[in-house]
């Protein structure tokens, strides 16, 4: 397979009869239009995903440096991934959408034409109509690697492929990993076939494309290593922090689909005769592993369907060599491919009953966008109905608007969309959404931000705003201790507590170690002796060898804390990486009112939630292994280390003085 005809038409077009030439060109255009994903069309909103999308828009517009000022799973072109936006980057959005759609169409049509019709056309239909944006990205990587494996010259075509892969790598880091791995396998394969010049050209083209795109996004070249380092840090903690278990039926369908793909890998590797098949098998295996981790670490209606969509796409890498197999092997390949399509389609519908309807709506929306390009990139509603919020819940922040003015504001948690809808001066901490600061290094980045010169003038915070039933005050726990030490409370603005930084130079919190002990899972810890002390805790949890293997190949079972604050036991999820440094524990702060009570002496409301006892557990992974209570504990060492701290300097007289004196009237 190769690309030619000004990098638009697959090779072989020139040799087709005249009536086939326009038909194949038309097919390429149709596939490109069906996969034209124009980002930024949806209006701004306050929920989790739209908020980080808008934050990426803001970062790319205000000259923030990725890897330093912004640390997230997306890169400087991450806004090309997002449907919501701030109405910015219109030209880049259009150019990026068109370029990726054209690259995908050329690669897909060329690849499927090289296969026998019984295989090629079903794959073409699948990839042209069913894929979401994530699957389309993996399709470009897979087919780009396939093209490079069979490359026989034509620098323009190689530049098209490597530039597309480089752009994806700078959109989202989970695209960067398979892109870099595929380029590496291609280079090694070319060297193994004594094509040193081709290998060097592929490596150089990809590296130059990454550098050119990075600098075109306004990013300093010196920051690229930091971007890679911090992105790897984000990736390293994802499985332990964000895992969510699948239903049994979903897991069985996924394993069956993987089994079909594995059988295809073995058939091609054993029976194929073409030398590049080794590279294709390696790339297919790597992409399958990435797809598995993407779909089955955080199991939900967004991630799992993508896994079932990607597996048939990966099979294109293998089916290219189906013609080189013997007759019996080729027949078996066809049976396995049909089974893979059937199982994948079943898994898709089981996990998203409305996917086909949604995909039809998405295609129609993309078609409408093409006919209205002058207004295709969404505008941000700034007042009126937008500030009424979803289902009538207000999202306005009148107190913050009045007091902050042009001052810088950050919102600790994940609803940063509120800041954009209220036209506030957003100044983000590096890890822009608190649930993602899930390793010690990431937590310290945010804590250091609030001690530095770039700390915001105002902070909004609600302890109840977290995900997955996590312990309140744990997300960004290290940063929250810094904020509560160096900011003062002005009042409540809706569900949020509005804090303003104090005039004194920022000082780090001073937790005093009170106790340190080793515990066993399920062992009760009595805290009544500490009374109304303001307590923080840190926890060392060590995974066993089985736990590390489970985290690598599947996902980690999260530990839990069960605590009693005088109103019955409450169970919360813990993220061990967030507990390497002290996190507030007692009183059990669940609302902004509880935080305001920190500035008053006992028996204020906050201290009424003093934690009396606690214990740590690992819940069994029901329904997968319901009844096997010891399974979860086998993933960790038998003992864990608990450290209790007294938080010195909190609360002090200045924390709520302005609020309680009435100097700051309510909204």
**Helix share of residues?**
40-55%
Radius of gyration: 27 Å
List the total number of helices. 24
Number of strands: 15
The main sheet comes to:
5 strands, mixed
The average pLDDT value, as a whole number, equals 86
Determine the oligomeric state from the structure: single chain
Describe this protein with a few key phrases:
single chain, 667 residues, alpha+beta, 24 helices, 15 strands
Textual characterization of the structure:
It is built from 24 helices and 15 strands. The protein has helices at 5-8, 20-34, 48-61, 90-114, 117-129, 133-149, 155-169, 173-192, 196-216, 224-242, 248-271, 277-296, 303-319, 327-351, 355-371, 385-388, 398-404, 417-421, 440-449, 477-486, 545-553, 592-596, 630-633, 657-661; strands at 3-4, 9-10, 408-412, 425-426, 458-461, 487-493, 496-501, 510-520, 525-526, 535-540, 560-564, 569-573, 583-586, 613-617, 639-648. The protein has 667 residues and is an alpha+beta fold. The N and C termini lie far apart (66 Å). The protein is globular. Strand 6 (487-493) and strand 7 form a beta hairpin.
Short précis:
The protein has 667 residues and is an alpha+beta fold.
